[in-house]
DNA sequence: TGGCGGTGCGGGAACGATTCCGCAATAGTT
DNA sequence: AACTATTGCGGAATCGTTCCCGCACCGCCA
């Protein structure tokens, strides 16, 4: 309405001929107000175009009205985290809470911890310094995927069973004829990486095959992907399938396969542990595990917000399902 | 330090044996304090581990301490925006301002406009409702790339000369033997898309070739990419190069080319208007225009923060350079 | 009818930082 | 030496909201 002066609770009070207290009670859910006054006040409020001053509200409630989102370092360009981020924003904006991103700098993390009511951390890398900071300040923490140490009563975890997903994927490859699958993993410094790796080793043991695995750092370059892929492909006996985990690395694997004279989808099955639109654009389209990151982000934010509203009720724990999207790269028939 | 009670300016005042006023002046840059007291107060502050209460500060200053970041709808998964976002966070955290993301919902946009001191909007789509809201409230707005209507005295723009980049890219293709380049564009509802399209048409006119272009929406699926690519490739005379704009679509073009029996990098040159790590993983590696999104985000945030500090000094205008990364997909020699 | 519990609402004090204003002490001017 | 300008600092109000108290009023039961 008015471009300059914002309308405050006092304006409503005057207009509705009640006190500030009553307005506050009528708009909120606390305090005792009659149904009639509540309705009246609310009508006046919407008519005047009232929007609460968040700074004042936060000051009074001794809250910040924001949650932090902590992503792994060097994550730039990974579609998974982008989607996850938007999921967090989806849920947070429902409760009018802002989402603050932390950059990788220590300064930023420290700042974030100070100006937020809680933090969502996804794919927490072992030994991330943010943890100690939060523990000592007793700030609510929700992790997407398990962290190395358990969260406390002010925390929670939303996680997927990547070990089982991996087993399911390898079973699928087996049905499609693969007997010696190789694994290009994301390292073992995150729970995700460890779970996948565990699943892979478990499957190999169960089927009595020699594991053929290599690790790629989160911030691997295209050259790294090529090098590690070739390394896996040159093992004797040569693998008949490659499962790759880092987001987008499947494309690099296709390239490496071509370099070795292999035809992906025919004499080499290829699958990715992270689905994304690029996987459908590749040739052949690549079988992938759908992690539904956006929903994951929503659930993490949801848990955190509940945790902020009722502190100390944790630790909470929720499992988030995954799904296998089968495509041409593993459908050689 | 103390996990419960935060240390306030009053604690410092007591400890340093001065008044709140002096503490505030000593920590800030306003007011008159002697060098000695300033140093003393600052020492006490850091010793006590003081962190200003943002809510209180914002309330008093009638600011929110946050800037909004408005991304195009359905942007999920595009590496460009992820990098851009982190650039904004980089710069914003230098000044302790939080970055609030808007989801695509109208509610979220409205909220963001209310709780932020200004907004960075990148690749503004024509007719985005956010604009009117900002105009009427006189909120600072910085656009990454030009919007349809000019920004006012409370706004600014950071932009790249995509028309020239396109001309340079096409000239490069020409040198590599291409005479009939086709263009897979991002539509003409953004300034980026319009500029690229203009550059393409201009080059075609200049070289007397018939344009062969198609558009892909921002949220195009893999199937859309395939369909449009095939459409371009089936034009007679067949194109000898494809320039594609939407992030990641180059991969789909490679696939479509293979379907037509063409070998990318040999009988079909391929180039992308947006570089990303996937472009280096593809086979062949794809020549791309480097837009340096992270730096772009930093510059946008920088401009916005300056604009918030000194309102009404706009409109400002900065050009951000681009660079051509030549790779195997256009190096057939 | 007097006392008592419950309901509806208003007064006022916070929350923590900033800033206008004023007062004392010192420096500078004639 | 008297008078003004400047410097250094403190008091108090203020931003908009929430929440603890307390007051008036109504109905109920003894």
What does it look like?
2 copies of one chain form a homodimer. Chain A has helices at about 10-15, 20-25, 35-50, 55-60, 80-95, 105-115, 130-135, 160-175, 190-205, 220-235, 250-260, 275-280, 295-310, and strands at about 65-70, 100, 120, 140-145, 155-160, 180-185, 215, 240-245, 270, 285-290, 315-320, 325. Helices cover about 45% and strands about 15% of the residues of chain A. Chain A has about 325 residues and is an alpha/beta fold. Chain A has 13 helices and 12 strands. In chain A, the strands form 2 sheets. Chain A has a 6-stranded parallel β-sheet with strand order 2-1-3-4-5-11, with helices on both faces. In chain A, helix 1 (about 10-15) packs across helix 3, helix 2 (about 20-25) packs across helix 3 and helix 8 packs parallel to helix 9. In chain A, helix 7 (about 130-135) links the parallel strand 3 (about 120) and strand 4 (about 140-145). Chains A and B meet through helix 4, helix 5, strand 2, helix 6 and helix 10 of A and helix 4, helix 5, strand 2, helix 6 and helix 10 of B. The structure holds a DNA duplex (30 and 30 nucleotides).
């Amino acid at each position: 309405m008015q471009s300059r002066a914002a309308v405050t609770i006092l304006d409503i009070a005057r207009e509705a001929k009640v006190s500030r207290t009553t307005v506050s009670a009528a708009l909120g859910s606390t305090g005792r107000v009659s149904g009639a006054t509540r309705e009246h006040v609310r009508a006046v409020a919407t008519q005047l175009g009232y929007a609460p001053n968040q700074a004042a509200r936060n000051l009074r409630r001794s809250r910040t009205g924001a949650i932090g989102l902590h992503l792994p370092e060097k994550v730039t360009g990974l579609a998974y985290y982008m989607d996850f981020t938007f999921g967090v924003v989806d849920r947070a904006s429902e409760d009018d809470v802002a989402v603050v991103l932390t950059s990788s700098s220590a300064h930023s993390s420290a700042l974030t911890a100070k100006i937020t009511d809680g933090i969502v951390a996804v794919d927490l890398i072992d030994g991330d310094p943010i943890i100690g900071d939060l523990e000592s300040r007793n700030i609510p923490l929700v992790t997407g995927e398990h962290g190395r140490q358990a969260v406390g009563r002010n925390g929670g975890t939303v996680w997927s069973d990547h070990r089982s997903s991996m087993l399911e994927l390898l079973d699928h490859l087996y049905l499609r004829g693969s007997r010696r699958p190789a694994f290009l993993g994301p390292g073992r410094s995150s729970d995700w990486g460890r779970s996948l790796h565990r699943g892979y080793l478990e499957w190999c043991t169960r089927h009595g095959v020699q594991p053929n695995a290599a690790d790629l750092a989160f911030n691997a370059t295209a050259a790294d992907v090529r090098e590690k892929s070739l390394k896996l492909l040159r093992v004797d006996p040569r693998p008949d399938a490659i499962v790759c985990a880092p987001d987008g690395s499947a494309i690099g694997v296709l390239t490496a396969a071509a370099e070795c004279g292999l035809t992906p989808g025919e004499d080499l099955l290829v699958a990715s542990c992270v689905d994304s639109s690029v996987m459908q654009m590749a040739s052949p389209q690549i079988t992938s595990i759908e992690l539904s990151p956006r929903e994951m982000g929503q659930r993490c934010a949801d848990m955190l917000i509940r945790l902020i509203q009722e502190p100390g009720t944790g630790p909470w724990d929720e499992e988030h399902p995954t799904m296998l999207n089968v495509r041409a790269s593993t459908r050689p028939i």
